[in-house]
Design goal:
Blueprint lengths: L2 H6 L10 E5 L6 H18 L3 E4 L18 H15 L3 E4 L3 H8 L4 E4 L7 H9 L3 E5 L9 H9 L6 E5 L2 E2 L5 E2 L4 H6 L5 E4 L5 E2 L8 E2 L4 H10 L4 E7 L13 E2 L3 H16 L2
Parallel strand pairs: 1-2, 1-12, 2-3, 3-4, 4-5, 5-6, 6-9, 9-12, 12-13
Antiparallel strand pairs: 7-8, 10-11
């Protein structure tokens, strides 16, 4: 297994189980974030799942000007740091410009490049130069093969600590599909690959500016990802998705996470035998 992944999870053998990136879409309050982190940490400890807590300190890519973007950069980043210090779990958050990389790196362990920004050279270089693990979401508009260029930009900037995450491919204007060939194709770039089980189910709505989703299909996407050998899963989850302030239509209800992960761990054990 990749040494930089193992360094994030020193107490867990990352070679026998998938890793999980999970949490609410955005930091909307300390209460939601801390409650979610506590529950997910407990589940992952019981199931021996390497876990990275995810929440965006700010959402810069919104369809409408009145969409919720965050509670403020520094307050949100401090909440993420509190999660890390309280639960001893690594943290990942999005950055949206090159200037944000160094700022966010002071609070988190993994910097995430949003899918729409995965070709932005200055952001990739800035993230790489922090020395943090860089998780690059594959753009919906890109082939899996083209992600080699994102990997090259980061490694040529002196950082080999990379994760690639597939989040579906555009299918018309208002739907996405998951091409599971992308997982082995990107793994051949000698980096771990995660599958985003929630954003892959987005239903962009250009008319209203409010994105929909089909969260009832999360288990289907996740099971298939484990079956084809993904290294990790990315699942946004929330204790009350109906009232979440961002991407509530895609997120898994937090109460459903544990039974889902139990099934996926059992499936991974079967896959490991082959």
């Amino acid at each position: 297994m990749y040494p930089y992944l193992q360094s994030l999870f020193p107490a867990i053998n990352t070679s026998s189980n998938f890793f999980l990136i999970a949490g609410p879409c955005v930091v909307e309050s300390e209460e939601v974030v801390m409650h979610s982190a506590e529950k997910i940490v407990r589940i992952c400890e019981r199931l021996s799942i390497p876990f990275i807590f995810k929440s965006s300190y700010r959402k810069a890519n919104r369809s409408r000007i009145d969409s919720f973007t965050g509670i403020g950069d520094e307050p949100a980043l401090k909440i993420l740091a509190k999660v890390r210090d309280t639960f001893k779990t690594p943290i990942v958050t999005d950055i949206h410009t090159a200037a944000e990389a160094a700022m966010a790196a002071e609070y988190v362990d993994v910097l995430q490049i949003p899918a729409f920004l995965c070709r932005q050279t200055d952001i990739l270089i800035a993230a790489a130069q922090t020395g943090k693990v860089v998780n690059v979401k594959k753009g919906q508009f890109l082939s899996a093969e083209s992600m080699q260029f994102a990997v090259d930009k980061i490694t040529q900037s002196g950082n080999n600590n990379i994760i690639l995450t597939d989040r579906g491919t555009m299918f018309g204007y208002q739907d996405l599909i998951v091409d599971y060939r992308a997982i082995p194709i990107m793994q051949a770039m000698q980096v771990p690959v995660a599958l985003d089980c929630t954003h892959s189910l987005q239903r962009p709505n250009q008319a209203s500016g409010i994105t929909g989703g089909t969260p009832q299909m999360i288990e289907t996407i996740a099971r298939a990802g484990i079956a084809v050998g993904t290294d990790g899963l990315f699942i946004e989850t929330h204790p009350d998705p109906t009232n979440a302030k961002s991407d509530g239509a895609n997120m898994l209800h937090l109460a459903l996470l544990e039974p889902l992960l139990e099934k996926l761990v059992a499936l991974r054990q079967v896959v490991n035998k082959w």
